[in-house]
Amino acid sequence: MHSHFGVFQFKGTVTEEQIVPCFNTLQEMVGRIPGLLKLEHGPYDSPEGLNDSFTHGFVMTFDSLVPRAPTCLIPCRSM
């Protein structure tokens, strides 16, 4: 298995109601992307203060490195 970690830096004006659909869309990839087994997500909060302004994070678990490569090509969007 292979894990892929990603973070988001949502602008301060973005509400939780706007963030939820973003993670719902990511969650919908499970079962649609071959080899993507699960996705976990939530607020990114470093008790040590090391979150570097990132507000949320996610971990995708793949069955191997091969299916992970195409997900790295998904374009970023500004929100």
What labels describe this entry?
79 residues
Structure description:
The protein has a domain of 47 residues. Helix content is 22%, strand content 28%. Strands 1-3-2 form a three-stranded antiparallel β-sheet, covered by helices on one side. The longest helix has 13 residues. The model has no long low-confidence stretch (mean pLDDT 84).
What's the shape?
flat
SSE order: EHEEH
Q: What would you call the quaternary organization?
A: single chain
Approximately how much helix is present in the residues?
10-25%
Mean pLDDT: 84
What composes the largest sheet?
Answer: 3 strands, antiparallel
N→C terminal distance: 31 Å
Contiguous uncertain segments of 5+ residues: none
Please compute the radius of gyration using only Cα atoms: 13 Å
Protein name: Dabb family protein
InterPro entries: Dabb, Dimeric_a/b-barrel
Pfam families: Dabb
Helix-strand layout with pairing:
Layout: E1 2-8, H1 16-28, E2 36-43, E3 56-62, H2 68-71
Antiparallel strand pairs: 1-3, 2-3
Short structural summary:
The chain has a domain at 33-79. Helix content is 22%, strand content 28%. The protein has helices at residues 16-28, 68-71, and strands at residues 2-8, 36-43, 56-62.
